[in-house]
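Working notes for the structural subgroup meeting. M.R. asked for a predicted model of this chain before we commit to crystallization trials. I am recording the input and output together here so anyone reviewing the notebook later can reproduce the run.

Input as submitted:
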Amino acid sequence: MNKRNIIIGLGAIVLAIAWYAFRPELLFVNKTVREEFPGGPAMASIEKGPMAVTKGNFKGLAHETKGLASIYQLADGKRTLRLTEFATSNGPDVHVYLVAAEVEKGNDAVKEAGFIDLGSMKGNIGDQNYEIPADADLSKYRTVSIWCARFGVNFGTAALASAKS
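Returned structure, recorded in token form:
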């Protein structure tokens, strides 16, 4: 094997690793989700159906992010986070977190204050639902973060306030 072939082979390996780490094609590929609301349409009273508990509008941080984050108490007692009219950038390993801090204070605030990982983002555009664990204390976790776990970057955040406000 000559030196040129070794350099080409190593270059190809480095490019493959860089592509896997950064996933640059995701910047140009949108994934749209249109999930139905769980348990039927949202109502004002829990006796009739799901009830909004908290809500907040997204604001972009590292990437433009918009839409509404709402937490609903469902008729069966479960809670769900619903993102509506949601849009952000796509990226590698992006998750939806409930965070126990004001994340506008920086990316380190998310790690230091603690968070609940609700799962990988289902799509970077559209309406989607995320089940909240039964033991999650919503008086503590008052912020939703769209978090790139691969790079430790907060794409956008929504501070949650009472749905009655």
